[in-house]
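Can't paste images in this forum, so I'm doing it all in text. The chain is below; anyone willing to post the predicted structure tokens underneath?
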Amino acid sequence: MAIVNITINGRNISVPAGITVLQAARQEGIDIPTLCDHPALSVVGACRMCIVEIKGQRNLQTACTFPVTDGMEIETESAEVVKARTMVLKMLFSERNHFCPFCEMSGSCELQDMGYRFGVDHWAFSTYTKNYAVDATHKHYLMDHNRCILCGRCIRACGELVANHTLGLGQRGSESMINADANLPLNESTCISCGTCVQVCPTGALFYKRSAYMGSDSEMIKVKSTCSQCSIGCGIEIITRGGNVLQIMGDWEGQANRGVLCKAGRFDPLYDGRERIPEPLHRSKDGEENISWAKAMQALAKHITKVGPDKIGVIVANRASNEALYLIKKLFIDELGVSNIKMIHTPAPRIEGKPHGTLSRIAGSDTLLVVGSDPLANQPVAAFQIKRALDKGARLIVVDDENNALSPFAHVNLKISDIGQAVEMASKSPSPVVVYGPGIPAPAVDMLKGITDRANFIAIETGVNTCTARALDVNKGFKSEAVELLLVLLGDGKCGGVELLKDIGGKTFIAVLAGYASELTDKANLVMPNAIWCERTGTLTNTEGRIQTLQSAVEPANGAKSDWEVLQMLAAKLGKKITVSADDVANTLATAV
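Text version of the structure:
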């Protein structure tokens, strides 16, 4: 890559040729203010806040669009530049209702920050008095056109990151407004409630209803963690204040999602109205009583010792952490000799002899073959990446006997029986990617083995931590007939109810570790409270095989514990010296996942 020498504010620097002035400045730690710019979005130069003075240019230029050339001399804070930026800010503040004390985003607004930075406390322009529409029809967020500065971030996020193209710009001049599907209310539009538009909005034009007026950025605590709603493992930031979770934001540094979330990841956990389990509960013929953790471990250990390994069954939800699965292997399989263990979700088969890549491979594909998987319905963030590839000209082939949410976007829709035709079409492509899931039948697996060696395969699991379960060989199979003690690690998921007890005898002792009360916990002999998504610690392995961290953002309610903590306590009660650490898990999975 060619290097050019430029000068910024008298500082001589060397940068790659072709990058913009804004990029060059940021590489050197020189701050140039922006409002419409966002690292994840395309450049439009709409706000004019990044204007700089370039020697030889008659007018001030936008740093976000102007490419550097050798010998260029740039001033980012000259008197003329500061004066022009201040004028831009005053015009923005005067155009619509930007009175900060009354705004729900005061203290968390980039426009307000710019006002403080440039000392804008008044303006000579008359304030625009028109009242713009406020769209409060959406369940989770609100669009207030009176606070909008028309930066276009929301439009670009909807189109470029989510590939949904719901938002656009309507009207002209001072009447310009962001609209959904040519001026439909949000709740009637094609909006899929991912919330990405709200996350990128620099003002109070788009904001989350739940967290409005709950405090400014300086009062919030942000903790990075991993979403466990599906197998993609999106990076998230949990926003709390006073021990209460207010928001879930996408982590722009998240390897699997790069800041983008779906409705299930951003909103569903915040509106989960299920009843928490207050403390360990023991049921017997004498009734039920709340007990301590010590007594709970004593009761469980007693029954494990009593029945023996051949009569023990373990059912694990796929939100179980890596540490919990590691302990299940070490304690139940290796130490106790239990083989009656199953995961709730069935893993996708591995197509031997074919390279399995990460989700990032989708972006460079020219043909996408989706078989046995419905990512738009079950793993939307992966589907967003597929739709982005389609926007760039890729071809989509969907092979499914069921209704597939991606079918309307596909160039070709085929039945499983026609998988050979799909393989033939994909094999003619220079860079095909095969996305498949647990729904793929064995004959289709055999057919896919015949695809071109140029193809990259991406297995999208249904369960969150299925990769680790496969690597540790935890999913041994399950026979319910002989079970006299059943341990169910349900976590905080909604999968698995009383159907898990099918064919379980009435005299079976049932122990359940769960975050919420359910029909299953109502029938259990021993119920133990599990830490939920925002309380637990540990790691997860996503569908790509990437190990990701779970961080606790709030203290576990009512003494609830992470799954691995409970298993470690149980091991100690059984006299087994088994511990687990992040290094133990990483070393075990390093060659297996």
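The CA atoms of residues 266 and 478 lie 34 Å apart. The mean pLDDT is 93.
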